[in-house]
Design brief:
The two termini are about 35 Å apart. The strands form four sheets. Strands 5, 7, 8, 10, 15, 16, 17 and 19 form an eight-stranded antiparallel beta sheet that branches. The protein is mostly beta strands. Helices cover about 5% and strands about 40% of the residues.
Length: about 325
Amino acid sequence: TDGVNYTTDQGSDLILLADTSDSSYNHTGLTADDTIYYRFFTRNGNYYSDPVDASVTLTESSLIVYDGFNVTAGQGLDDNSNAGGTGWSGYWSTSDSWGDDAGATVYDSGSLPAVAAAAASGNKAKFYGANDGRYIDCTRYLSSAINSGTIYLSWRQNHAYSGTENYAGLRLLNSGGDVQAFIGKWYNDKLRIYDGTDTRTSVQDFYNGSGNDYLTVVKIEFDAVGSDDIISTVNYRSGYELPGEEPSSWYLSMTTQVSNIGAIRMSCGANGGNQIGITYFDEIRISDSWTETVRYDGQQYRQMMEKGPLPELIYVGTVYDPETSHDKNSITDQEL
């Protein structure tokens, strides 16, 4: 109502959420399956434009696959029945070139950071790669192999040492245990995709050491080019905020053939007299959208984040007068 100075939380059928000139507003405390109705005004003093209405129904979707490594620190990953998460069949299985399958991978306290990423839960996985020539794999199978549509995979990673003779990342296996692709730091300090035959290396750095925690995101498009599939990847270093939307251009893309994704293998190691050092993995997530896989609160607020309120033109002109302008939203030939 013109002439009324409304305050936050004041209203009858509608509650005033914010009176702000900011370009965005974070509406929290919402519940899945609720339909939220919004009304937007511009304000000049205590005079208001005609409203723009929008609504959104909140859907909380489940991740296809998730592991936040929420197990007591100090326990081993290998064949640990406490392994939790969603979308898995069985537990993690460790293979250590030094023969210490039980002790080479353990749950470690705390989570790796990532600005504006989906909230982390639990702890993280720690790999004892601090020996020359040592390599460690830790594999877990999915409850159902994925072989169609488009999926997004993300995980967090930190490795101790750089070098051209060491590697750290994820291997994607099919349901038969055959490696379909490796994504991560591969024998250099750059992001790389390797499918066993072909390779793509980014100019994007994959730094090592304390504070260089990375969130890596992979997009897999099954049957994107005839019967061929496309794997794309980007990574983001801690301290740098994620983009809200899926990037229009990924750092790397490769056309290849992926029979299915049936297992995830965390993998690190080095050749000869080299080592990758202590390596951490955290927050493995797979879903069918960038928003759910990557963004903070992306599961609960996916529809709102991806769709958002629809804009409506309420006035055309240079000076808006609430008494006379009303909803002038068309332009005549003379005005053009």
